């Protein structure tokens, strides 16, 4: 697998395109700073992966609400991500049962690959944020209170 989770970009873009009853006015001067603040990008030439998360509010949630890096071990994060990715992919394959605009793209997560701590940390926390924001429960065991 050459790229890890490029689908996250598509899912987040689709999810962030939902219409809202009130939309803030953003002028072009602030647009680049807004996008920069809501984009989390992790890449590595060594492991040949890239993950880009563009989700309004995720970066500030990650910095203010999520448990700090180092709280969980990499092995713990990998085991949770494997379960969460499996649940995500099952929902992706059942658009008649789950909102296809939320689970638009399948996640290719190889449990035998070492993606490093940072990718696993941010992926796990994205799943938590996603579940809280969209009131979804990917699993019964590792879901935050919604």
Number of strands: 2
Largest sheet: 2 strands, antiparallel
Number of domains: 1
- Low-confidence stretches at least 5 residues in length (pLDDT < 50)? 17-35
Strands of the widest sheet, in order across it, are 1-2
Structural class comes to: mainly alpha
Query: Could you tell me the mean pLDDT?
Result: 76
How many DSSP helices? 5
Radius of gyration: 15 Å
Content of β-strand: 5-15%
Query: Which term fits the overall shape?
Result: globular
Helical proportion, percent range: 40-55%
Task: Give the CA-CA distance, first to last residue.
Answer: 33 Å
Helix-strand sequence: HHEEHHH
Pfam families: DUF6146
Protein name: Lipoprotein
InterPro entries: DUF6146
Protein described:
By secondary structure, the chain is mostly helical. It has one domain (7-133). 43% of the residues lie in helices and 8% in strands. The chain contains five helices and two strands. It has helices at 7-16, 28-37, 58-64, 74-92, 117-133; strands at 39-44, 49-54. It has a two-stranded antiparallel sheet. β1 and β2 (49-54) form a beta hairpin. InterPro entries: DUF6146.
């Amino acid at each position: 697998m050459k790229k890890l989770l490029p689908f996250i970009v598509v899912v987040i873009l689709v999810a962030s395109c939902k219409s809202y009853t009130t939309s803030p006015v953003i002028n072009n001067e602030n647009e680049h700073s807004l996008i920069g603040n809501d984009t989390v990008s992790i890449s590595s030439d060594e492991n040949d992966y890239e993950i880009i998360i563009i989700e309004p509010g995720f970066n500030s949630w990650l910095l203010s609400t999520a448990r700090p890096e180092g709280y969980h071990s990499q092995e713990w994060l990998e085991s949770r991500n494997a379960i969460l990715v499996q649940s995500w992919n099952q929902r992706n394959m059942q658009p008649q049962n789950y909102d296809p605009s939320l689970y638009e793209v399948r996640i290719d997560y190889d449990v035998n690959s070492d993606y490093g701590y940072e990718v696993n940390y941010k992926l796990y926390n994205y799943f938590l944020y996603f579940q809280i924001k969209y009131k979804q429960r990917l699993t019964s065991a590792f879901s935050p209170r919604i």
